[in-house]
Amino acid sequence: MSRVITCRNEDNVQGVFSYDFDPFFIEYIEGITSVFNNVVVSENTMIDGATYQGSTTRQRFISMGLQYHVRNRQEAQERRDSLYRLFKPKATGTFTHTEEGETRSIDYKVESIDIPENKKILKTAAIELSCPDPFFKAMFDVNVDMARWEPLFEFVHEFTEDGEEFGTRIDEIIKEIQNDTAAAKIGITIVFQAVGAVMNPSMYHVESGDYIQVGTTKNPFYMNVGDIVTITTMTNNKNVTFTHEGETTIINQYLDEQSEFIQLSYGMNTLKYDADSGIDYLNVKVSYRQLYLGV
Known about the structure:
With 295 residues, the protein is mostly beta strands. The chain has one helix at 73-86; strands spanning 4-9, 14-17, 24-30, 37-42, 51-57, 60-69, 92-99, 102-114, 122-131, 136-138, 142-151, 167-171, 174-179, 185-186, 188-194, 198-205, 210-213, 222-223, 228-234, 237-244, 247-250, 264-265, 267-277, 282-288, 291-292. It folds into two domains: 4-134, Elongation Factor Tu (Ef-tu), domain 3 (Beta Barrel); 142-292, Jelly Rolls (Sandwich). The protein is 5% helix and 54% strand. The longest helix is centred in the first third of the chain and has 14 residues, at 73-86.
């Protein structure tokens, strides 16, 4: 089998595990294809059954068993220490699964590591990982350009007397994004870059009717050439930042009170950008990472 597991912790310590003793062999791995949900219902007096209120996907638990050969006590200690460094208590890490050319990753916290002491040549280790965010992620973002300038000027170049365009404006104020994964909500990153004067940029999610707007009539937000507003709507990472002359600050205080950190729902998602003024001076890009319920 071609399965390879790579674990890398916050200290950049990495371990690679496969079905070869190099030096560890995967004995078993559980929790990478299963999904469990918490279904919330309410029971009503004198009414049969229950009323469905909603459900959430539970955190994921991954169990991994390893085997490894040792020739002497010193080598046994070295193997144990390498696993202790990788799966140290309270450590945060990334679990990456690769099989048949498909690679997906998930963040984890170390629950436990158990390495029984014995005098056998073949040693074992059991690792328990907890993944608060249960979704596996693709390795790379999907980038969607909604508005940008496409350069037309190339070297070597011969100028003409009639004049010529140095670039052309490409803009799609409305863009459709299809989400066919099992994840009902996928956070996105929205980047507004000003190439002129802009006031109060916004992004709308047509299907839900939700929007997020930076700046209001009473508290306007102005952008000038080179300024960048970045909006992130991922779970545990919902922020609005402003980059001006290389310095980045959080500007959540400029959000319109009705703003929502819009995410991609299952199926078709229609996004529309806008601004109270200067919409033609915006470069707009949306990026997101596909989420999966298993490997």
